[in-house]
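Recap from last week: sequence in, structure out.
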Amino acid sequence: MTPARTPRGAGATSRPTTKRKRRKPDPVAIWVRRLERTRPNLVDDVLAGLASIYGRETWQRRLDPTSELILTILTQNTADVNAEKAFEGLRGAYPSGLPREAHRPGLGWGGTGLSEGAPPDWMAVETAPLAELIDVIRPGGLGPQKAPRIQATLRTIREARGDHALEFLGEMAPLEARDWLTAIDGIGKKTASVLLLFCFDQPLMPVDRHVERVSHRIGLIPAKATADQAHDYYLAMLPADEADWEHANTAYEAHVNLIHHGRAICHARKPDCAACPVRARCRFIDPKAP
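Predicted structure tokens:
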């Protein structure tokens, strides 16, 4: 008797079908494409409008990178003029004897500029008695919070690199350098971007409260985007290669003109909209502005 044939496939174990996980849509890329489609040339027009009254600043280094980092920490949640007083206090209390350097703050800085002087002795700052350091930087405000943050930052850099120098960051790719800095507790994207932009002309856009306010009002970034998220929106909107720009605009120009505009015209309260060179494209003035 011939055995019955088993139907093809019968009894065989079926292979589970694996579904490919769909990539989550990138909100930054979606936003940038939407701007290009619905509000073409917005970034170019905004920067051209600002440049029409503020000019086009050219980059030059302000300070050495370690000084820039500590000065930026001192500016957190306080006026730039107060941060200057605190930094001058560090210079006086912990002199290094190094060559003097000139502070060239440029447009967008809210203080009067540091006097010409040598950077502080960072090892002395790192190892100073905490109460003493708090007193030295007290004129800058929030000394009890900033003093331990500054010492921890300096300690982290020294333990990772052997000294407090940060010149090596200029040899790294911009985002790699930003990641290195933001791995230090208390340093966010804004502080890291300030250092990398002003010390190395890296194409990173620092977003402070002025830049954030102006950007939201015009509609350059989504209404619900935080200042931290805005860094990545600008990273996508501003080409890294200035050759891609019709007028060689850079993150440097964008930052200094937007921050200055926030201080000079687009105030938090009672902005002087009549004097604004980009009012025709501002959604704060006209919710349907092109």
